[in-house]
Write a structure and sequence with these properties.
Layout lengths: L2 E2 L3 E5 L5 H8 L16 H18 L3 E6 L2 E16 L2 E10 L8 H15 L5 E7 L3 H9 L3 E6 L8 E7 H8 L1
Helix pairs in contact: 1-2, 3-4
């Protein structure tokens, strides 16, 4: 299902997105805060894309390719909601990554706010969470602007310092939107 915001056009990922996925996730700059580092090659990007498409097929929601309204054929990022296991927790995880040219323009906040609304209103999730590195202050600001609150540290990457778990329940979100 496609989603549109004021400036963004979101559509479910598809097979033809593999080059754009590798361009964004294979870029060392977009992985500054990712202890796993950039995707090593296009085959790895293809395996991730296959997993994302499988998530859509199984759950009816997942990651979108993100573009601007005025250029829907040029992908500037990927993001969405996915069921993920972190440490001992299963989460409705909000994730996103944008190309460096899209940074600092408010797209991540616009995307996150829209994805949360979609998650609560369309697919009726009861809680949405996000995991962010402690030193990734820009992403923490995005999550806080979108309404998520810091909950606790979470061990999500082996041999790396813990990340921060942010979360928002549907009831909390409803109170804020009244």
């Amino acid at each position: 299902m496609k989603v549109e915001t004021k400036r963004l056009y979101l559509r479910p990922v598809r097979e033809s997105d593999v080059v754009a996925l590798f361009k964004i996730y294979g870029d060392p700059a977009t992985n500054t805060f990712n202890p796993a580092g950039p995707y090593p090659d296009i085959d790895y990007a293809q395996s991730v894309l296959n997993r994302w498409i499988g998530h859509w097929n199984t759950h009816g929601f997942g990651n979108w390719a993100i573009s601007l309204h005025n250029n829907i054929d040029s992908i500037i990022g990927f993001g969405g909601l996915g069921i993920r296991d972190f440490a001992d927790s299963r989460l409705n995880n909000l994730g996103y990554r944008f190309c460096t040219e899209a940074w600092g323009k408010g797209f991540a906040t616009e995307f996150a706010t829209s994805a949360i609304e979609y998650g609560f209103e369309v697919i009726d999730l009861t809680e949405i969470s996000a995991v962010v590195r402690r030193n990734h202050h820009a992403s923490q600001n995005v999550l806080e602007k979108a309404g998520l609150k810091y909950i606790k540290e979470i061990l999500d990457v082996e041999n790396a310092p813990p990340s921060l778990l942010y979360s928002l329940t549907k009831n909390e979100w409803l109170r804020k939107t009244e």
